[in-house]
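STRUCTURE REQUEST FORM
Protein name: C2H2-type domain-containing protein
Source organism: Teratosphaeria nubilosa
Requested output: structure tokens
Priority: standard
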Amino acid sequence: MEHSRQSSLAQPHGSHVCECCPKKPKQFESEEELRLHESEKQYTCAYCPNRFKNKNEAERHQNSLHLRRHSWSCAALAGVEAAFHTSPNGNGTDVCGYCGEEFSNPPQWDIRAEHLNQKHKFGECNLAKKFFRADHFRQHLKHSHAGTSGKWTNMLENACMKDEPPPEKRAATKRLPMDRAHQITQVYVSKTFGCSGQYEETTT
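Status: completed
Returned output:
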């Protein structure tokens, strides 16, 4: 019992902190609990310390946060002309990439520029802002530039898209073997609950 008190003094409450949940690190009473938690997350991200319970979760995380092959930004739009595109209706007009409003040809750029400035706050947003998912960029167009979705939206997305350099991978971390994960789980259960299956106070 005296040894148990000394151990509790040496190890503060919740002193074992996981490194596989960087956003919200979890604290555990013992090293066994920490190992059990880590053993549940078999798949490690190649670019950050995050770990996941299954391969699909790990791939989804990497694709959305790290493998950013493209970005979208208002800064990438090359002037007023790039905001207008040939109408998909085939009637010889151009459409605004923000709202789909049609404009006759030949273009009157002063009228088109006025439309962009007054209706869509053209050039007024934070030009340093980047989006790494097209759906997030569409939300930006909707809320910051009074954009509406349509075929014209895809044209504007293409005009605002840039290629991004591939990220550098972290040093490879091997997935914990299943037999080792099972072994850690069994050690934790036997130490915590004992052979009877009832909770027992243990000293380590």
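Reviewer notes: The first strand starts at residue 16 and ends at 17. The CA atoms of residues 72 and 131 lie 5 Å apart.
Form closed.
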